[in-house]
Amino acid sequence: MLAAATQEPAAAREFLFAQPWVLWLLLLLIPLALLRRRRGTSSAVVYPGVPFMRHLLRKPSTLAGRVGAVLLWLAAAALIIALARPQWKNEYQEQKVSGIDIMMVCDLSGSMGSQDMVFRITDKNGRERNQQVDRLTAAKYVMKEFIDARPNDRIGLVAFAGKAKLCSPLTLDHGIVNYIIDQFYLATQDLFSGDVRPGYIAEDGTAIGTAIATAATRLDERKETKSKVIILVTDGASNRGSITPLEAAKAAADLDIKIFTIAIGRDDRVSRYTSNIDTFDEKTLQEIARSTGGRYYRASSGAKLLKAFDTINKLEKTDAKRRTVVSYEELFPYPLGVAALLLLLGTALQFARPHPAP
Prior knowledge:
Order of helices and strands: EEHHEEEEHEEHEEHEHEHEHEH
Number of helices: 9
Shape: elongated
Strand content: 25-35%
Structural class: alpha/beta
Number of strands: 14
Radius of gyration: 40 Å
């Protein structure tokens, strides 16, 4: 399977010494410096001096001489630090993901406005109650939840009614896919004028075959992906389009594309009061899923719709492999370079120091 993403979080950086025990040598510089400043023993032979000429003589210990000695001590300290091998330790978790390409196909026909989907929600007072929403609202909510649960998969979007429309190509930018889903709306009619405002898909109807073909075409463009899935959410029977659902499903099966079909809403056609609404073509939806290696789900409530998507989420697993990568960045060249520079400069200043006056 193709690695859909390789995630490398910011590395955890830690400064350390590869051989910290070498730093104990720095303590030796302290007694050496103190011994250098001590006066020697008094001479055994007393000889006459020339104190009357003291004001005419210059002190041999010049500024250059004192600075040169300090630089040599600093050079020794830098050399010890370099021997201790300072370094940056970089550690991070590398995640290689073999993702799945998924095309979400959503029905936007007029019947998706039927308010027969019930969700169990908790209100602001902490009380549970039933919330009834239309089929499109339920589908939009559950589709977004599903998308958010699969951050490593490329996901695309097709909407359809009387015709199909590619809304988003396959992408890892799930934010834009969710944004487009939020923009889905159905046709509405003005109560006063009777004017009809077209929906997101202006032509009404249910072109399931065309929608499947559109999604399959986009999935087939990615030849290197081995796992390709279409999730079809619809509440009616196909009545538009130049290709039948079963013909489109056969073409998808030839491309190794699995189709999961979800019939959303309650089928109330058995009621004499709703005999004119679209009914589910369960037989066709079942055959679409069977012929492509997918599954068919009946979602007559919000809970069942959530369960259907949850089952698909578990069936189509993304393969993720993690490993810890540790690297070391050696820093000893820097103190070593400083030590060489200080040693050169200190030696030069020591040689530049004038000799004591007679």
